[in-house]
Amino acid sequence: MNAPRQAAPPAAPESSDARLGSGAMFDAISNRYDLVNRIVSLGLDQGWRKKTVASLALQAGDHVLDLATGTADLAIAIAESNLEVTVEGSDPSEGMLCVGKTKLAQHAIAHRVTLVTGDAMAIDRDDASFDAVTMSFGIRNVPDRPRALAEIFRVLRPGGRLAILELSEPRRGPLAGLARLHVHTIVPTVGSWLSGAREYRYLEKSIAAFPPADTFADLVRAAGFVDVEARALTLGVVHLYVGRKPRAAQA
User: Fold this and answer.
1) 111: number of CA atoms within 13 Å, CB side?
2) CATH number for position 106
3) Of 94, 144, 212, 223, which one has the greatest count of Cβ atoms within 10 A?
4) How many domains does the chain have?
Protein backbone atom coordinates (compact mmCIF):
# COMPACT_ATOMS: atom_id res chain seq x y z
CA MET A 1 0.00 0.00 0.00
CA ASN A 2 1.65 3.18 -1.16
CA ALA A 3 -0.74 5.81 0.23
CA PRO A 4 0.50 5.71 3.87
CA ARG A 5 4.13 6.10 2.71
CA GLN A 6 3.31 9.14 0.59
CA ALA A 7 1.70 10.90 3.53
CA ALA A 8 4.58 10.28 5.94
CA PRO A 9 7.58 12.34 4.69
CA PRO A 10 6.34 15.93 5.39
CA ALA A 11 6.07 15.46 9.14
CA ALA A 12 8.51 12.62 9.60
CA PRO A 13 11.64 13.15 11.72
CA GLU A 14 14.54 10.74 12.03
CA SER A 15 12.21 7.98 13.25
CA SER A 16 10.85 7.60 9.69
CA ASP A 17 14.05 5.72 8.86
CA ALA A 18 12.65 2.74 10.79
CA ARG A 19 10.40 2.12 7.80
CA LEU A 20 13.31 1.80 5.42
CA GLY A 21 14.05 -1.81 4.56
CA SER A 22 10.47 -2.84 5.34
CA GLY A 23 8.03 -4.61 3.07
CA ALA A 24 6.26 -1.29 2.52
CA MET A 25 9.44 0.31 1.21
CA PHE A 26 9.94 -2.49 -1.30
CA ASP A 27 6.29 -2.26 -2.37
CA ALA A 28 7.08 1.28 -3.52
CA ILE A 29 10.03 0.25 -5.74
CA SER A 30 8.87 -3.21 -6.84
CA ASN A 31 8.12 -2.32 -10.45
CA ARG A 32 11.66 -1.00 -11.01
CA TYR A 33 13.54 -3.33 -8.67
CA ASP A 34 14.81 -5.81 -11.28
CA LEU A 35 15.93 -3.10 -13.70
CA VAL A 36 17.83 -1.19 -11.02
CA ASN A 37 19.45 -4.39 -9.77
CA ARG A 38 20.74 -5.28 -13.22
CA ILE A 39 22.15 -1.80 -13.76
CA VAL A 40 23.81 -1.16 -10.39
CA SER A 41 25.28 -4.70 -10.27
CA LEU A 42 26.45 -4.43 -13.90
CA GLY A 43 24.48 -7.61 -14.57
CA LEU A 44 26.60 -9.62 -12.13
CA ASP A 45 23.71 -10.37 -9.76
CA GLN A 46 22.52 -13.26 -11.95
CA GLY A 47 25.91 -14.95 -11.74
CA TRP A 48 25.94 -14.51 -7.96
CA ARG A 49 22.61 -16.29 -7.74
CA LYS A 50 23.92 -19.19 -9.83
CA LYS A 51 26.79 -19.63 -7.37
CA THR A 52 24.26 -19.57 -4.52
CA VAL A 53 22.22 -22.34 -6.14
CA ALA A 54 25.34 -24.41 -6.83
CA SER A 55 26.39 -24.19 -3.17
CA LEU A 56 23.25 -26.06 -2.11
CA ALA A 57 24.15 -29.29 -3.97
CA LEU A 58 20.43 -30.00 -4.36
CA GLN A 59 19.05 -33.48 -4.87
CA ALA A 60 15.88 -34.59 -6.63
CA GLY A 61 12.89 -34.16 -4.34
CA ASP A 62 14.44 -31.46 -2.16
CA HIS A 63 12.13 -28.78 -0.78
CA VAL A 64 13.72 -25.30 -0.55
CA LEU A 65 12.66 -22.14 1.27
CA ASP A 66 13.81 -18.87 -0.31
CA LEU A 67 13.41 -16.08 2.23
CA ALA A 68 13.20 -12.44 1.12
CA THR A 69 12.46 -13.90 -2.30
CA GLY A 70 11.52 -10.48 -3.68
CA THR A 71 10.66 -10.82 -7.36
CA ALA A 72 11.56 -14.53 -7.22
CA ASP A 73 14.81 -14.49 -9.24
CA LEU A 74 16.55 -16.90 -6.88
CA ALA A 75 13.47 -19.08 -6.40
CA ILE A 76 13.17 -19.48 -10.18
CA ALA A 77 16.89 -20.25 -10.53
CA ILE A 78 16.63 -22.93 -7.83
CA ALA A 79 13.64 -24.59 -9.49
CA GLU A 80 15.35 -24.51 -12.90
CA SER A 81 18.48 -26.16 -11.48
CA ASN A 82 16.71 -29.48 -10.82
CA LEU A 83 13.48 -30.70 -12.39
CA GLU A 84 12.35 -32.40 -9.17
CA VAL A 85 13.05 -29.61 -6.67
CA THR A 86 10.16 -27.60 -5.19
CA VAL A 87 10.59 -24.06 -3.87
CA GLU A 88 8.63 -21.86 -1.52
CA GLY A 89 9.47 -18.16 -1.81
CA SER A 90 8.56 -15.91 1.11
CA ASP A 91 8.69 -12.12 1.33
CA PRO A 92 7.02 -9.36 3.41
CA SER A 93 6.38 -7.21 0.30
CA GLU A 94 3.18 -7.93 -1.59
CA GLY A 95 4.37 -5.65 -4.39
CA MET A 96 7.55 -7.65 -4.93
CA LEU A 97 5.64 -10.93 -4.83
CA CYS A 98 3.19 -9.60 -7.42
CA VAL A 99 6.08 -8.94 -9.81
CA GLY A 100 7.48 -12.39 -9.01
CA LYS A 101 4.17 -14.11 -9.79
CA THR A 102 4.01 -12.32 -13.14
CA LYS A 103 7.52 -13.58 -13.97
CA LEU A 104 6.69 -17.09 -12.80
CA ALA A 105 3.72 -17.29 -15.15
CA GLN A 106 6.19 -17.18 -18.04
CA HIS A 107 8.22 -20.17 -16.80
CA ALA A 108 7.56 -23.87 -17.24
CA ILE A 109 8.63 -24.47 -13.62
CA ALA A 110 5.84 -22.26 -12.20
CA HIS A 111 3.98 -25.28 -10.76
CA ARG A 112 7.00 -26.08 -8.57
CA VAL A 113 7.35 -22.61 -7.05
CA THR A 114 4.96 -21.15 -4.48
CA LEU A 115 5.18 -17.50 -3.41
CA VAL A 116 3.77 -16.46 -0.04
CA THR A 117 3.84 -13.45 2.27
CA GLY A 118 6.12 -14.11 5.22
CA ASP A 119 8.60 -12.82 7.78
CA ALA A 120 12.08 -14.31 8.17
CA MET A 121 11.92 -13.69 11.93
CA ALA A 122 8.74 -15.76 12.31
CA ILE A 123 8.64 -18.49 9.66
CA ASP A 124 5.17 -20.01 9.59
CA ARG A 125 6.29 -23.57 8.97
CA ASP A 126 6.90 -26.65 11.11
CA ASP A 127 10.29 -27.69 12.42
CA ALA A 128 12.52 -29.54 9.94
CA SER A 129 10.32 -28.69 6.94
CA PHE A 130 13.00 -27.83 4.36
CA ASP A 131 16.13 -29.40 2.88
CA ALA A 132 17.69 -26.01 2.19
CA VAL A 133 17.05 -22.35 3.00
CA THR A 134 18.32 -19.42 0.96
CA MET A 135 18.19 -15.64 1.20
CA SER A 136 19.60 -13.19 -1.33
CA PHE A 137 20.06 -9.51 -0.49
CA GLY A 138 17.61 -9.75 2.40
CA ILE A 139 19.37 -10.49 5.70
CA ARG A 140 20.67 -6.91 5.70
CA ASN A 141 17.08 -5.69 6.07
CA VAL A 142 16.13 -8.01 8.95
CA PRO A 143 15.96 -6.07 12.25
CA ASP A 144 16.79 -9.12 14.42
CA ARG A 145 19.29 -11.27 12.51
CA PRO A 146 19.99 -13.80 15.31
CA ARG A 147 16.25 -14.45 15.55
CA ALA A 148 15.99 -14.99 11.79
CA LEU A 149 18.97 -17.36 11.82
CA ALA A 150 17.40 -19.29 14.71
CA GLU A 151 14.18 -19.60 12.70
CA ILE A 152 16.09 -20.83 9.66
CA PHE A 153 17.89 -23.39 11.81
CA ARG A 154 14.55 -24.55 13.21
CA VAL A 155 12.83 -25.15 9.85
CA LEU A 156 15.84 -26.90 8.29
CA ARG A 157 16.00 -30.66 8.39
CA PRO A 158 19.13 -32.17 10.00
CA GLY A 159 21.89 -31.97 7.41
CA GLY A 160 20.05 -29.21 5.54
CA ARG A 161 22.04 -26.41 3.95
CA LEU A 162 21.91 -22.64 4.33
CA ALA A 163 23.04 -20.14 1.66
CA ILE A 164 22.84 -16.39 2.25
CA LEU A 165 23.92 -13.95 -0.45
CA GLU A 166 24.52 -10.39 0.73
CA LEU A 167 26.11 -7.18 -0.44
CA SER A 168 29.13 -5.93 1.49
CA GLU A 169 31.51 -3.01 1.50
CA PRO A 170 35.12 -3.98 0.70
CA ARG A 171 37.38 -2.60 3.41
CA ARG A 172 40.78 -3.54 2.00
CA GLY A 173 42.49 -4.39 -1.26
CA PRO A 174 43.65 -2.32 -4.26
CA LEU A 175 40.11 -1.87 -5.63
CA ALA A 176 38.31 -1.34 -2.32
CA GLY A 177 38.15 2.42 -2.90
CA LEU A 178 36.56 1.94 -6.30
CA ALA A 179 34.03 -0.48 -4.85
CA ARG A 180 33.11 1.98 -2.11
CA LEU A 181 32.65 4.70 -4.72
CA HIS A 182 30.24 2.40 -6.52
CA VAL A 183 28.24 1.75 -3.33
CA HIS A 184 28.17 5.33 -2.04
CA THR A 185 27.80 7.24 -5.31
CA ILE A 186 26.75 5.15 -8.29
CA VAL A 187 24.16 2.96 -6.54
CA PRO A 188 22.14 5.79 -4.93
CA THR A 189 22.48 8.04 -7.98
CA VAL A 190 21.27 5.45 -10.49
CA GLY A 191 18.65 4.23 -8.03
CA SER A 192 17.26 7.72 -7.57
CA TRP A 193 17.07 8.28 -11.34
CA LEU A 194 15.14 5.06 -11.89
CA SER A 195 13.19 4.67 -8.68
CA GLY A 196 13.48 6.73 -5.52
CA ALA A 197 16.37 8.60 -3.91
CA ARG A 198 15.25 7.83 -0.36
CA GLU A 199 15.10 4.08 -0.94
CA TYR A 200 18.50 3.84 -2.60
CA ARG A 201 20.17 6.07 -0.04
CA TYR A 202 18.93 3.48 2.43
CA LEU A 203 20.59 0.76 0.34
CA GLU A 204 23.90 2.60 0.50
CA LYS A 205 23.67 3.07 4.28
CA SER A 206 22.54 -0.49 4.96
CA ILE A 207 25.48 -1.97 3.05
CA ALA A 208 27.94 0.20 4.98
CA ALA A 209 26.27 -0.77 8.29
CA PHE A 210 26.29 -4.52 7.63
CA PRO A 211 28.93 -6.31 9.73
CA PRO A 212 32.20 -7.54 8.21
CA ALA A 213 32.05 -10.99 6.66
CA ASP A 214 33.89 -12.72 9.52
CA THR A 215 31.57 -11.16 12.08
CA PHE A 216 28.42 -12.25 10.27
CA ALA A 217 29.85 -15.75 9.74
CA ASP A 218 30.34 -15.95 13.52
CA LEU A 219 26.68 -15.01 13.95
CA VAL A 220 25.72 -17.91 11.67
CA ARG A 221 27.87 -20.27 13.75
CA ALA A 222 26.30 -18.97 16.95
CA ALA A 223 22.89 -20.01 15.59
CA GLY A 224 24.13 -23.62 15.53
CA PHE A 225 25.34 -24.04 11.95
CA VAL A 226 28.50 -25.96 11.12
CA ASP A 227 30.86 -25.93 8.12
CA VAL A 228 30.25 -22.18 7.86
CA GLU A 229 32.12 -20.26 5.16
CA ALA A 230 32.05 -16.67 3.96
CA ARG A 231 32.97 -16.68 0.26
CA ALA A 232 33.92 -13.32 -1.25
CA LEU A 233 32.58 -12.72 -4.76
CA THR A 234 33.55 -9.98 -7.21
CA LEU A 235 36.34 -8.42 -5.13
CA GLY A 236 34.26 -8.66 -1.97
CA VAL A 237 31.30 -6.49 -3.03
CA VAL A 238 29.18 -9.56 -2.29
CA HIS A 239 29.63 -12.47 0.08
CA LEU A 240 28.04 -15.90 -0.06
CA TYR A 241 27.59 -17.36 3.42
CA VAL A 242 27.07 -21.11 3.52
CA GLY A 243 26.49 -23.47 6.40
CA ARG A 244 24.86 -26.72 7.38
CA LYS A 245 22.56 -27.86 10.17
CA PRO A 246 24.22 -30.75 12.00
CA ARG A 247 22.74 -34.18 11.29
CA ALA A 248 22.66 -35.00 14.99
CA ALA A 249 20.91 -32.56 17.33
CA GLN A 250 23.32 -30.58 19.47
CA ALA A 251 22.55 -29.93 23.11
Assistant:
1) 3
2) 3.40.50.150
3) 223
4) 1
